[in-house]
Design a protein that fits this description.
AMP-bd_C, AMP-binding_CS, 4-stranded antiparallel sheet, medium-chain fatty acid-CoA ligase activity, Rossmann fold, ligase, alpha/beta, GMP Synthetase, Chain A, domain 3, 7-stranded mixed sheet, 364 residues, transmembrane helix
Amino acid sequence: LAPQVEKYLPTHSTVESLRHAPFYMGFTSGSTGKAKAFLRAQQSWVHSFDCNIHDFHMKKEDSILIAGTLVHSLFLYGAISALYVGQTVHIMRKFIPDQVLDKLETENISVMYTVPTMLESLYKENRVIENKMKIISSGAKWEAEAKEKIKSVFPYAQKYEFYGASELSFVTALVDEESDRRPNSVGKPCHNVQVRICNEEGEEVQKGEIGTVYVKSDQFFMGYILDKVLVSELTADGWMTVRDVGYEDEEGFIYIVGREKNMILFGGINVYPEEIESLLCTHPAVEEIVIVGIKDSYWGEKPVAIVKGSATKQQLKSFCLQRLASFKIPKDWHFVDKIPYTNSGKIARVVAKSMIENREKIHE
């Protein structure tokens, strides 16, 4: 990919040209297909650093713990942003729960970047960290029940989570005091971001109405590198979407229902796997779960569950019957010892789907 990147480097190094020059090449997580290469310019990173101050209320004096490896874009961001403003940064070579907790006990850590699956592992260590610190989580929705549980480990910590994407960087932030009131929300737009929800015609919808999430900010990536060409995803009026589906409530909180490409078309009705997963994760006997769409001769597609945990099929069906519309309830249930994840910590939906189709590593 080097020749494709070189053509976008400035021929003369001025301050202005360097701001807009490629600074970082990354790859999307590939949770639903092949990972795509993309470029980000220096200036987009600088604008995203502003969110640390204005939305997460961080200070230059903070000491940052990066709980995972720099392969994950969240941890890479945490390290680079800390160095940019002159903060102290501690980087773990590998995520090992007891070593992370040891570090928190022995160092004056005030901010930790992490993801929900890591926090679950820290919870299972059954230890208490009394630091007055901030926990910043992203990569997946931090479910309300999991947030409540983690208070037993970090009783004095402030909890922050944000919604974003490789292409968009920060979009919304949910701060601790708002999390209890709006546990299913991903928060309000960051201070330098605009969000609107649009229908298929690109028209903005009413509050509470589901549509595609569009974003406008100075944090966008430059584009994907496709067929040796840098392809921008901007609309004519400067907005961008990664095809996430959601809605905005009357107070301006944003809710993500799912992603268009994950949507299951069940008998002509749109079913979003993330909604079902979010509910079933609250069942005490479910450790992890993924919902995928499998072809069906009658319905077209049907929602199918892949579960890690001790729950039985009947328990989960009964749980769903009380809480979900019938068309959203998984039609088949498969149980596994391990849910597949990408290198960036997201559920590998393509791999999960192939496990069912090929009858690999599953049991009824």
